[in-house]
Design a protein that fits this description.
Length: 354
């Protein structure tokens, strides 16, 4: 029977510090190796036994996960936010690696989902599109800030029109400021071209995934939002139900309570006091929350969601909480349709997401 070993890796750009322990928690070996493909492969192949490897989610996690998965029994990319043990006591790379190995042995790590390679290309193309979109917005804000800084009113989108660029530049009397604006205009045009190129590549890649046709049937989920959802979720069946999906999207309500039980006539009784809510969960996928919030904002103004939104507001629910309800319903419908592979049917989808 192969010996079971637990390998903790503290990963850095230049080197990886490794600690290996056995099933009893006894240290077997330590090592510091270079962060290179062949060096890592040689080290892992040199360890005999059933290997369970862990390291924290980070910049190099995807690459390292794909590299190690064929070589070992198990790879756990853990969530660093849950590794409180690393913050206690002395701290250095060797201690961190040893603690990771001990947490893996005890089954105390919270894994970060890395999925399969099927959506890897789409993930990268979605990132490219989002970064270019963010850069474009940043340059547009800088351009408006420049005009406002010199007392030129520039409300609306007219300032960005290519055919009116000369007219706007003429409003800047200072030569240096005008040259700076010209460079910003050039940068903006280049970013818009790159953004369109990235968008076409992203949509072309998303069309390769069968889920696209189903998800584009959900109201307010256009082609771009569907591509972002597929890239983020990968496989809907990794969520047991809508509540787990809500938590992943940042739509789960956090509740806190204490002193739940009391003694009454020698028997344990549960308190009837209500649990205190503390807002929505803070550990979530930012992209998915943005996608569903934006889609729900539009959905509140059209059927089949407008009727429910208006009813909630009439009953005294704050508009923000009513939008949250619609956002959660939209996320639940998306998950259910994706799992079942069924087209959108308003009555059936709304009742299923209730």
């Amino acid at each position: 029977m192969a010996k079971i070993l637990y390998v903790g890796m503290d990963v850095h750009q230049a080197c990886i510090v490794i600690a290996v322990i056995d099933a009893k928690g006894k240290a077997v070996s330590e090592a510091v190796i270079e962060t290179k493909t062949e060096t890592i492969k040689d080290f892992i192949r040199g360890i005999k036994g059933e290997l369970h490897v862990t390291f924290e989610e980070g910049t190099q996690a995807t690459w390292l996960y794909d590299l190690l998965r064929p070589l070992v029994t198990e790879v756990v990319v853990c969530n660093p936010r849950h590794n409180k043990l690393l913050a206690s006591g002395n701290k250095n790379d060797k201690i961190d690696a040893a603690k990771l190995a001990q947490l893996l042995r005890g089954g105390l790590l919270k894994a970060v989902y890395h999925g399969e390679a099927g959506t890897r290309a789409l993930k990268e193309l979605v990132r490219s599109y989002e970064y270019l979109l963010s850069d474009t917005t940043r340059v547009m804000n800088r351009l408006k800030a420049l005009y406002r800084g010199w007392g030129v009113t520039c409300a609306g989108l007219d300032v960005y029109r290519k055919d009116k660029e000369s007219e706007w530049l003429a409003k800047l009397a200072d030569r240096g400021v005008r040259q700076r604006a010209q460079l910003l205009y050039r940068e903006l045009r280049a970013l818009k071209e790159l953004r369109q190129e990235a968008k076409h590549a992203m949509l072309a890649e998303s069309r390769k995934h069968p889920a696209r046709k189903v998800l584009e049937g959900v109201p307010m989920l256009g082609a771009v939002r569907v591509a972002q959802i597929i890239a983020s979720v990968d496989n809907p069946h990794r969520f047991r139900g809508k509540r787990q999906f809500w938590a992943y999207c940042g739509l789960a309500v956090v509740q806190r309570t204490s002193a739940e039980y009391r003694m009454e006539n020698g028997k344990v009784k549960k308190s009837a006091k209500a649990q205190a809510t503390r807002g929505l969960n803070t550990n979530y996928n930012r992209r998915l929350k943005h996608v569903f919030k934006a889609a729900a904002t539009s959905a509140c103004g059209c059927e089949p969601f407008k009727k429910q939104y208006d009813k909630l507001v009439e009953e005294g629910v704050a508009p923000a909480l009513a939008r949250l309800t619609i956002t959660r319903k939209l996320a639940a419908i998306t998950l259910a349709m994706w799992k079942q592979g069924e087209p959108f049917a308003a009555e059936r989808a709304m009742s299923r997401a209730a």
